[in-house]
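Late entry, written up from scratch paper. The run itself happened at the end of the previous shift, but nothing got recorded in the book at the time, so transcribing now.
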Amino acid sequence: MTEKGHDGAFTNTPQGIHMTRRKFLVAASTVTASGLLAACAQPTPTAVPPAPTAAKPAAAPTAVPPTAAPVAVQPTAAPVAAGAGKYGGVFKAAISAAPPMLDGMASSSLATIQIQSGTMETLINLKEDYSHAPLLTTGWDISADGTTYTFPLRQGVLFHNGKEMTADDVVASTKRFLEVTTRAAQFALLDSYTAADKYTVVFKLKKPSAAFLDALVSFASGLYIMPKEIIEGKKANELTVADMIGTGPYKLVEAKLGDYVRTVRFDKFVPLPEPGSGMVGGKIPYFDEIIWYSVPEAATRVAGIETGTYDWVEALPATAYDELKASAGVTPYVSKPCDWMIYLFPNHADKFAGNVKFRQAIAAMLDMDEIGMAVTGGVKEFYTLDASLWVPESTWHVEDETAKKLYNEKNLDKAKQLLKESGYAGEQINMSTNKSYDWMYKTVLSAADQMQKKLGINTNVVVMDWAAQQKQWDETAGWQFSISGVRGQAIAAPGDLVGYWSSKTKGGLNLHYNNPAMDKLVEEEQAAATTEQRKAAYAKIQALYYTEFPWMKTITTYGLEAHRSNIVGIRPWYRSFRFWNVWRS
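Output as recorded:
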């Protein structure tokens, strides 16, 4: 195995929430704007400070495995109520990678999602229990035949430029989203979307689909609502920083990609009246500013949280857990049930990675515990093995004996025979990775090492920056394998995951995969009218997956994150980067 680098103004009262399903309407609470707006009237944000540089330690943090299994921190029992916190200050978050772009409609990158989570909003989203709830709507109504979804919009919601959001903006946002999204397959059944009046939007489907609401909530290449006049005619990644206008509690004002992105409180933001839950409910922007720093070195993130350079850090090495627990002023926590479900990505346009026998050979050989121990530095409590494409805690988890036999099989004789049948004869196999995400780097190193030592495959690890690696997925030549992972898709957004394997998804995470049998199953999933029908479709998709390996699942990790102990209100969830309802004590 070889390794090489690669350079690669007005305010109205928001309407009450009405959750509507088919013929049923359930009224919820209403609120006047005056009280909440008064609570949000705070001092003008200060100028952005220079990007801090965490003092790097002389050596990497001492690798001390925890003496007992870490306990996942659960969300606070009582969500923060409006007015409970303290306003002011700058919150500094250190993320492990730079966003490849700020255009959240076009990007599935976690770094983009993290930054836009506080600036952009969707029509509906998820509560803490993963159920759907209104966000920019007052609810929704589904027609008796299941094909028409009507969304009454909240009135008086302002964009960051002071303009009121209307149905025309939703229609324009949907149009652009469908043109640039990486999730086109999830909207294959969408027939039309229209503005019925100023505050009502109607989506019509070609046939009923129980998956449609899931498609609307995804933040990965999300259907964010933006001003019509800003986004019309703009292709993917053509939006400037000034164009990044949403409805969230913070607005994006400055970006130096690769270094930092600065957001400031949107003082005209009107939170919903109910307590915050998941990505919905009341969002109180207590901090004057939130600055997102891109800090690719894990040791620097550890040092930065210990010294107070940063208020929150992510993607920390599991071996730093005990050190952080003993560090004064630091609160580490473990993110469960899934930090990352890690996949090797085959280039299906390639002679070998696109050969099912070659993929089957690698799958039959890989020892997933070797990968897990490499990724976590030997701390077994920070990863788990499971054959299902969805975590056991998910509604969509599939129990299948065939999958269990084919996952982590470690059958060298079978692997060698499959490799022989693939026609492989010693050609170099390039495996792309990056060092922004330590788990990606170590997974590829371990997989490449096993491929070489156990099967004699001539592997070549190519290290590049994360943005370049993602661009490479659209290329048909020059690489055989890459890597990434899923989080929400493994828990509450199953349609996101399987949609990538549809040929209707062009570029990006589709990886040039085209299988009519998979297309048919994804269409079946999209057309499922009930939860049980969806589950049945996912079982069929998983069965085909273990024949085809469109991606190659390795391990599921638990994440180690930390915040300064004087930061109040952080509620770990699968999206830990929710910094509204959070303040400094």
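The longest helix spans residues 438-455.
(Scratch paper discarded after transcription.)
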